[in-house]
Amino acid sequence: MRQEWGRRCPANGADLLSCRGYGHGMSDAPIDLPVLRWLIPRPRQHPPDACSGTAPAVFTAALARLQQWLEAERIPFVIVGSLACAGWTGQDSLARFSRPAAFGRAQRYPDIDVLVPRTAVASVMQYSRAARSGPFPVAVDVSGAACFIDLRPDCEVSYLTHRQLRFPVPSGLFAPRPARVAGTPITTIDPRVLLHTFGAIGGIIRHKDMVKVTALTGALETGMAVSLFSGQDCAVFTEFTGERDRRYPRYRVFVRLVDDVLEAAPPGFASGIRYFVMPAAKTTVAAMNRTCGRAGAPVR
């Protein structure tokens, strides 16, 4: 695994360390939509360890096994999302190992969000399907790489993407950094860069991610999480989200609406939506990006 990706290049812009207002409207009040009770699926019953607030050994073993497989396959990777946030803050609870309203078996524990080069997405998705059907199902999510971050560790520049928008970003920002979550070593990214991926990936900062953004911001401010980059280095993420909102304003409105519905819905209903609908939605977004890329989409 290479420890230095691309070349570090500063970008102009303001420091977005403060999570207040980050993501353009993340403080908007959720939409109050009534949900008919007969439409709400009941959460499935799982073994007692599904309600534990700590990571079970079988999950951390699955996490370690994934990283070992990626290294054996020589696939550059970094772990992002809630596991990375828990690793940098020292708050394992941010990964939410207690999920009693899980609809599917893989929802009992947090997704393992991993960024890989797009040339490796198909291979990791095949691994993910096997992991979901194994004796201890876990969800390995590569939608961030497939839909929003075209990671190119062997090049100076990677890209933040959405449909025809391809925004260059220094690959060095995604250089691997070591951390630990639930006692397990993980390969993740710089904590300040991780903070800026919330909102860049997915279109908005979701309601359930507010606590993670707040905790990570606090860890950066207190020095518990030490960043190698400045807010100016990471300003490219804000430029990207601003340009995406300008070109595709309906996309942001739609994902905000979906998130508000999931936030207002009972846990069992929200889990059912995430289980049945979200995978197809992520696949559609990834396919749209691939189509635009083949069409010779303009950069910025």
Topology of helices and strands:
Layout: H1 57-72, E1 78-80, H2 81-89, E2 112-115, H3 121-132, E3 140-141, H4 143-148, E4 149-150, E5 157-162, E6 165-170, E7 177-181, E8 184-188, H5 191-200, E9 201-202, H6 210-222, H7 235-247, H8 249-264, H9 267-276, H10 278-294
Parallel strand pairs: 2-3
Antiparallel strand pairs: 1-2, 4-5, 5-6, 7-8
Question: If you had to describe this structure to a student in words, what would you say it looks like?
Answer:
With 300 residues, this protein is of the alpha+beta class. The chain has a single domain (43-294), classed as 2-Layer Sandwich (Beta Polymerase, domain 2), CATH 3.30.460.40. It is built from ten helices and nine strands. The protein has helices at 57-72, 81-89, 121-132, 143-148, 191-200, 210-222, 235-247, 249-264, 267-276, 278-294, and strands at 78-80, 112-115, 140-141, 149-150, 157-162, 165-170, 177-181, 184-188, 201-202. Strands 1-2-3 form a three-stranded mixed β-sheet. The two termini are 30 Å apart.
List keywords for this structure.
12% strand, 3-stranded antiparallel sheet, alpha+beta, 10 helices, globular, Beta Polymerase, domain 2, single chain, 300 residues
